[in-house]
Amino acid sequence: MVKAIRINAVGGPEVMEYVDVEVGDPGPGEIRVRHAAIGLNYIDVYFRTGAYPQPLPAGLGMEGAGTVEAVGEGVSHLKEGDRVAYATRPPGAYAEARVMPAAGVVKLPKSIDFETGAAMMLQGLTVQYLFRRTFPLRGGETILFHAAAGGVGLIACQWARALGVTMIGTVGSDEKAALAKAHGCTHTINYNTENFVERVREITNGKGVPVVYDSIGKDTFLGSLDCLSPLGMMVSFGSASGAVPPFGLQELASRGSLFITRPTLFSYSAKREDLENMAADLFAMVESHKIKIEINQRYALKDVAQAHIDLESRKTTGSTILLP
After folding, report:
1. pLDDT per residue over 93-136, tens digit each?
2. Model-level pTM greater than 0.85?
3. How far is the CA of 207 from the CAs of 52, 115, 198, 203, in angstroms?
4. Which end of the chain is more exposed for a tag (fewer CB within 10 A), N or C?
5. Any domain includes 128
6. Are residues 32 and 99 in the same domain?
7. Which domain, by its residues, includes 24?
8. What is the CATH number of the domain that holds 206?
9. Where would I find the Enoyl reductase (ER) domain in this sequence (predicted)?
10. Cβ proximity of 280 and 269 under 8 Å
11. Read out DSSP for 186-200?
């Protein structure tokens, strides 16, 4: 028996229960992993509240790092004793140990500790595909990135700096602005005291930006479109403030033939070769010290409800991990 978080109904943080569960042996294509650390991400809130439906009862958590305890039939890229990390479906990382599909799990370099591995996979791989594939950045661009002091945001700040990209980042406080700037964000905008559309136009001398990376959703969507230059790309990769409301395609035409995409990590990493390449790119950035993963909050697994409360109230910065 191991301790794990389970939900029997969707709702607030109180629906998460800390219980004993049986963890059996891995079947074909599966491994059993013993977690050393578990990542906390906003997607966990979407599953908990039912915004992303799943059969109940269910586990939560998409990200973790630890050691392979057992390997099922047909698994050739991993063996017992391997140090591993992952950010993949199905949910279930909120546990001391779990059986899971091996296809979404990669070996963790010895130079990267388990806590960093658990904190970086979902957020780091997200920045990797956003910057390398969704709208490939070559260097010299000016971009807008919302929530620049969050877990994804702080990695994006550092990655943009490494690429020679001018990043404009929105934040919710002066303290978060200072944090984002310290990590490489060129310009910060406090959306509680400034109009971010006006500030982006001011910073870019009225031109706008070629791409906006927006994980906020409802509250920023139309404003983000207004920040784009003609033929610009709106990358809507999250909805922390709620789902983007329905809109007409004329909204894109009237602003200069804009493009829009709603990408997910799981589409970009669905092929094993792509996942391996993405992880290698991320690991290289961390090992070269171009990116430092900021773990600013740690919670015991049993205290996950408080972790969700703090995440939803935007009290957290950088990455957050749960310790089993």
Report:
1. 999 999 999 999 999 999 999 999 999 999 999 999 999 999 99
2. yes
3. 37, 42, 11, 9
4. N
5. no
6. yes
7. 2-121+273-323
8. 3.40.50.720
9. 11-322
10. no
11. SEEEETTTS-HHHHH
